[in-house]
Amino acid sequence: MIDQIAKVLPLKGENIIAGVMYRRHFEWYVAPKNLWKMDYKKLYMIWRFAYSKSGKTVSELENDIGSYEQFCAKRWGIEVLDSNTVSFFLAHLFKCRYSVDELRLLRMVSRDDRKTDYTPSLFIDFDNNIMYSQYPRPENFENFVPDGWTGYYENFISFIPEDKRY
């Protein structure tokens, strides 16, 4: 049995809303934002560079975020989230799926200062190898797409099926 993470609510800076198109089927997911950086190799290299630039050692990096293997283990060993690994990834997020009606209702009843938590952050189209981000800078999710993919920083709502918009 696959270990599934518990359903969480959107929370700015922590849990984000991502739309996923896979095998011509669209679903909304809410999950911790660090899971959605698609290529952990690229992300880990950025961490290494940042540590090196600040005068810190690889040992300090590994003490803070773990070795590369430990880092990837936080996402069930998935180094690169792409069409080869998406079904395994989404199986872990099964409980994190939200219907458009759930998201609409939750946004409607949320406090005014929390309504922006319900703005979708990502749209990942596994059928066409495209990822769109409208997550606030400097996060740059689009810089962590797998090789052969295209990443954009732009509003993607027009690409979401009309019956899935909220």
The largest sheet is:
6 strands, mixed
**What letter string, H or E per element, gives the SSE order?**
EEHHHHEHEEE
Q: Got a strand count?
A: 6
Class derived from helix and strand content: alpha/beta
The overall average pLDDT, rounded, is 95
Overall spatial form: globular
The percent range for strand residues is 15-25%
Q: What order do the helices and strands come in, and which of them pair?
A:
Elements: E1 15-22, E2 25-32, H1 40-53, H2 58-65, H3 68-73, H4 86-92, E3 97-98, H5 100-109, E4 122-125, E5 130-133, E6 150-153
Parallel strand pairs: 1-4, 5-6
Antiparallel strand pairs: 1-2, 2-3, 4-5
Give a description of the structure:
The chain is an alpha/beta fold. The chain contains five helices and six strands, in the order ββααααβαβββ. Strands 3-2-1-4-5-6 form a six-stranded mixed sheet. A hairpin with a 4-residue loop joins strand 4 and strand 5. The chain is globular. It starts with 14 loop residues before the first strand and ends in a 13-residue tail after the last strand. The model has no long low-confidence stretch (mean pLDDT 95).
